[in-house]
Amino acid sequence: MNTPRPIRKLADLTSEFMADAFRKQGFAASELVTRWKDIVGTEIAAHAEPVKLQWPREVNGEPAEPATLVLRVDGPVSIEIQHQSAVILERINRFFGWPAVGRIALRQAPLSRPKVKAAPPKLDAAEVARVESTLTAVTDDDLRAALGRLGAAVKGR
């Protein structure tokens, strides 16, 4: 007989394979990507996003040099982001607690922004009233009003 598996959080399930994807891009910790807006601020995060961290190779046991953070930047704002690179470096290194990033490289490309859902269309009050008037068999006023709005929305599509 099969024994039921314990319930796991979705974040726990996704963190396992997402960690591998982040590691391939040089991110030892995913927080730089997932908390980008908190780290650099909303103004910078609106125009730039981290792509990867490039770590230099160690040379015969010498101390490792800081990484280069590659940022994808909206084209017209790239000069402004370049001027703010010292601020970005300071905020990132303060977040990590050590000088993890020493340089920023910019790549001009469109940002991968989530698609914004369009607002639902406004319902025509006359259409809602017309649909409600056909629902005479429904005795509950709230239910009749809800069904009227639903009917008007379906007819509007």
Can you characterise this structure?
With 157 residues, the chain is α+β, with helices and mostly antiparallel strands. It contains eight helices and three strands; from the N terminus they run ααααββααβαα. A three-stranded mixed sheet has the order 1-2-3. The longest helix has 16 residues. The protein is elongated, with a radius of gyration of 26 Å. It starts with 9 loop residues before the first helix and ends with a helix. The model has no long low-confidence stretch (mean pLDDT 83).
Low-confidence stretches: none
Kindly name the structural category: alpha+beta
Could you give a short account of the major beta sheet?
3 strands, mixed
Lateral strand order in the biggest sheet: 1-2-3
The number of helical elements comes to 8
**How many individual β-strands?**
3
Mean pLDDT across residues: 83
Distance between the termini: 50 Å
Portion of residues within helices: 40-55%
Backbone shape:
elongated
Give the topology string: H per helix, E per strand.
HHHHEEHHEHH
Rg result = 26 Å
Report strand %: 5-15%
Topology:
Layout: H1 10-24, H2 31-34, H3 36-40, H4 42-45, E1 48-54, E2 67-73, H5 78-83, H6 85-96, E3 101-108, H7 125-133, H8 141-156
Parallel strand pairs: 2-3
Antiparallel strand pairs: 1-2
Helix pairs in contact: 7-8
